[in-house]
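Record pair follows.
FIRST:
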Amino acid sequence: MAFILRRLVLSIPILLLVSIMVFSLIHLIPGDPVTVILGLEATPEAEQALRRELGLDRPLVIQYLAWLGNVLQGDLGRSLVDRSPVVDEIFRRLPVTIELALGSFFVALLIAVPTGLLSATRRGSVVDYGSTMLALGGMSLPSFWLAMMFIIVFAVKLQWLPASGYVPFSEDPRANLTAMLMPMVATGIRESAVLMRMLRSSMLEVLHSDYVRTAHGKGLTEWVVITRHALRNALVPVVTSSGLLLAGLLGGLAITETIFTIPGFGRLIVEAIFERDFVMVQGAILVSALLVVLVNLVVDILLALIDPRIKAGKGA
């Protein structure tokens, strides 16, 4: 519990710094949100009234403190475009992105774990070279290119899957799966290449350790040595990379969501940026930073369970 509390306390200044950076950078972007809302034909009186209503006529420090006070109360403001609560819009879009991110991460694990283990345990074999080539190919191919190829092949040519759209799982589980399958696979393939290379490198290092040779000397089978002795220690850097990967997916799926017209969180941020809806952008980026902190907290807990030395402050 003390370990978790320390991590939570350390996350507070990070979130505070992120809030300051987000608020400052948004106001440094060229353009006037009042002009975006009212248009170029608006009168100076109307612009001044709206600026006063939005609080944009006050100093930036006062604006930030007022915004931060509302954030601490769970109020991220209202959209400048349709005046809808930012919190409601974020929590309407966020579950879609979480589903896509977790599905893509699961696909990446399904590919990376077996190929990484086979490549490490069969070093220098055809399997190793083939896995390495596949990993390099996966890292080289952009996910948006794979997404378009999947649409052409599986949606246009074969007509097995829908080309775009989204159906909530609660409404129709089968339609939800068919709509999300291509985005998940297109994103997961590239991410699996990173995890596979990380797992292979970590396993090769662990397999040459003294305790692994001792386990072999005791007459244990290769499967037991790998699963009970080598894999646990090899997972430490892999779990760290997985946390970074998942955190990136939660806030970086805008391109995939745009290609497949999925109403997700990343697409919301892009739309808000183009519409100069800085209130929505501030709230969305702050929530994204909070998700990254939470994912890192979960990763720290998992690492402490895998390697108790980390919990004691003696691990890497």
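SECOND:
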Amino acid sequence: MHDDLIQFCSQLVDLNAEEVELLKSNFHFLSIKRKDFLLQEGKPCNFIAFLNKGIIRHYHLKDGNEITCDITLPRSFITDFASFTQSIPSKYNFQVLQNAELLVVQKKDLFNLYDSNANFSKLGRLMAEKVAQRTINIAMSLASEKPEERVNNLLLQEPELFQSIPQKYLANLLGISPESFSRIRARKKP
């Protein structure tokens, strides 16, 4: 179960056998069924999780409407960094779209890892940088690309989303209406 996590982390930092065992002992398995939540708005996010299997949608509520702001695919880390770092209630919901298998480390355990080993501090920084870069890319796309460009780029970068995510969530993620999303997709088909 930990193999994907170890492989992913080993691509970021060089882990020795002891560090691998520390990862295994601090990241605990969690299984969540489709439509259930990893995190709900108003609750503190005191964990970082590695998504081994499944898909998780990040959304918040605005005027009673769900606004999808990201989608986590397998072999990715997921957390609400604002809630995690500031110990405040989350503004987000992490809803499982496909049955999920995760490896989860609690905040106190992660901080103990950081304190015990410089490699884990480096790993934490690199994970945070990856999440921050993804957030920046989404914001830049929404601010500077036309809707058709956003759809085309998502199709090129993550084509699996189009087979596994409901269209309304993809449209919402891209900042366009489901109707516009359908029209753009229809123009792309042969």
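COMMENT: Strands lie at 28-32, 37-39, 47-62, 65-72, 76-78, 93-106.
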